[in-house]
């Protein structure tokens, strides 16, 4: 079960530390099953309650997870400092379609933006006690939000979408609370919630976004928050339509105390309109990231929401990092206002690739989904087998297990590295790996 690694310790703190060290060093790998509490207690010569306390500490720290009678195991993304071994190794000669990164050719150069920002900072250096939000960034962001129908609200800046989501959840929820999340959905949210002590409740997704009946069921069951990806949903490419937005707003109106968090990370790379849900519940937050359109290393997102939510986020941020670099904010302002990204051209480039792959798969009897963004989701009967066969054929794809809780198996293909001439051979490989068959739902 544990290979050569031996868990040590007589106190709960020592046992927990032993496991955490092993996870950090790679001695215990993601997904590895831990001994039953009574068995480990007998081996260590301690009371089973001591081991139970150690396992509880590890769960609270986000190192392990427990699934009832199936036991406790190391999380797929444990919260430790030594996690380099979690990276997917793509053999030489294999095309990497698993990483989820944007097409580098569609990203703008950053040198000019930072040169402009640097000159402005030299003239007006930021001092302690100044505003956390670059005034021009706040103005440009708010104008964009207004144009898309996002309700009025103050603006703060965070270090990316996940940072914003974490801060919003922490501002309103307490350990033990349940949060409704899309399933399939963003794996990072699945990993984040338990670290905050929150329980996740899966909500089914189709091409038009979260399913209203599932959302109602989750909220009726006690979920205090709902996280929705408005466009370019990861991994399915779903985008909330006008009709689905009306239906979801109707459900949320029945539960006005729900904390609504909307993630629009696909801003400026998508070719479908935004249909925001905000404005129905008492507390809400809407997040926009610069990563997909301008580069993952631009760790910046704009967050707006109701006054209480934004004030709590800003107040907690002020006591920690203080603010997101105003130099970085100035650079993003330049990128947004200079037309560095041709939104129509970028969204069309991703759209043509998605559509070409989906059409090629359809011609081979394989159902795929990808309404927006840079990913295509393919339901499969045997996820592990499909990934292995595609890797053998020269294509590395992401296993759906990273993105789902109870949803059926699938694989995610990122189209950003692909050219249109890749679609036919890739579709041949996918069809051979998964086999044609009746349409398989992914909810």
Describe it for me?
The protein has 443 residues and is of the alpha/beta class. Helix content is 40%, strand content 14%. It contains 15 helices and 15 strands. Strands 4-11-10-9-8-5-6-7 form an eight-stranded mixed β-sheet, sandwiched between helices. The chain has a three-stranded antiparallel β-sheet with strand order 12-15-14, covered by helices on one side. Strands 1-2 form a two-stranded antiparallel ribbon. Strand 5, helix 7 and strand 6 form a beta-alpha-beta unit. Helix 1 crosses helix 3, helix 2 packs across helix 3 and helix 6 crosses helix 11. The longest helix is centred in the last third of the chain and has 21 residues. It is globular, with a radius of gyration of 23 Å. The two termini are 33 Å apart. About 2% of the residues have low confidence.
SSE blueprint and pairings:
Layout lengths: L11 H14 L11 H8 L3 H13 L3 E3 L5 E3 L20 E2 L14 H13 L11 H13 L7 E4 L2 H12 L5 E6 L3 H9 L3 E8 L2 E2 L1 H9 L4 E5 L12 H13 L4 E5 L19 E7 L1 H4 L6 E5 L1 H13 L6 H12 L5 H21 L11 E5 L3 H10 L2 E2 L1 E2 L10 E5 L8 H12 L9
Oligomer: single chain
Q: Indicate the mean pLDDT.
A: 92
Instruction: Classify the helix fraction into a percent range.
Output: 25-40%
Distance between the termini: 33 Å
Percentage of β-strand residues: 5-15%
Q: Report the sheet with the most strands, covering strand number, pairing sense and barrel closure.
A: 8 strands, mixed
- SS-based class: alpha/beta
β-strand number: 15
């Amino acid at each position: 079960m544990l290979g050569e690694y031996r868990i040590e310790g007589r106190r709960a703190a020592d046992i927990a530390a032993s496991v955490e060290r092993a996870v950090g060093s790679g001695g215990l790998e993601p997904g590895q099953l831990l001994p039953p509490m009574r068995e480990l207690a007998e081996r260590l010569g301690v009371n089973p309650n001591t081991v139970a306390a150690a396992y509880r500490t590890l769960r609270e720290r986000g190192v392990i997870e427990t699934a009832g009678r199936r036991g406790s195991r190391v999380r797929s993304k444990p919260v430790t400092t030594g996690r380099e071994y979690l990276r997917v190794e793509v053999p030489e000669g294999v095309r990497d379609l698993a990483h989820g990164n944007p097409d580098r050719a569609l990203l703008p150069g950053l040198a000019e933006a930072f040169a402009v920002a640097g000159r402005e900072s030299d003239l007006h250096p930021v001092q302690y006690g100044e505003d956390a939000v670059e005034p021009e960034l706040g103005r440009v962001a708010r104008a964009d939000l207004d144009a898309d129908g996002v309700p009025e609200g103050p603006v703060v800046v965070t270090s990316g979408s996940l940072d914003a989501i974490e801060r919003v959840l922490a501002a309103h929820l307490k350990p033990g609370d349940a949060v409704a999340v899309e399933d399939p959905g963003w794996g990072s949210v699945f990993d984040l919630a338990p670290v905050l002590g929150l329980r996740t409740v899966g909500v089914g997704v189709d091409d038009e976004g979260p399913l209203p009946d599932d959302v109602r069921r989750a909220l009726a069951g006690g979920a205090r928050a709902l996280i929705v990806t408005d466009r370019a949903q990861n991994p399915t490419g779903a985008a909330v339509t006008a009709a689905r937005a009306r239906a979801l707003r109707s459900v949320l109106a029945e539960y006005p105390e729900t904390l609504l968090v909307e993630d629009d990370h696909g801003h400026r790379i998508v070719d479908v309109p935004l249909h925001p849900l905000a404005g129905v519940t008492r507390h809400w937050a809407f997040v926009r990231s610069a990563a997909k359109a301008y580069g993952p290393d631009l760790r910046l997102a704009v967050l707006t929401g109701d006054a209480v939510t934004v004030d709590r986020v800003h107040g907690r941020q002020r006591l920690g990092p203080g603010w997101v670099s105003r130099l970085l904010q100035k650079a993003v302002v330049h990128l947004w206002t200079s037309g560095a990204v041709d939104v129509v051209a970028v969204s069309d480039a991703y759209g043509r690739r998605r559509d070409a792959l989906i059409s090629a798969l359809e011609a081979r009897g394989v159902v795929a989904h990808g309404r927006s963004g840079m990913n295509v989701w393919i339901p499969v009967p045997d996820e592990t087998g499909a990934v292995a066969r595609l890797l053998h054929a020269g294509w590395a794809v992401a296993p759906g297990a990273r993105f789902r809780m109870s949803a059926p198996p699938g694989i995610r293909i990122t189209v950003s590295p692909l050219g249109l001439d890749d679609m036919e051979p890739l579709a041949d490989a996918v069809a051979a790996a998964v086999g044609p068959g009746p349409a398989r739902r992914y909810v």
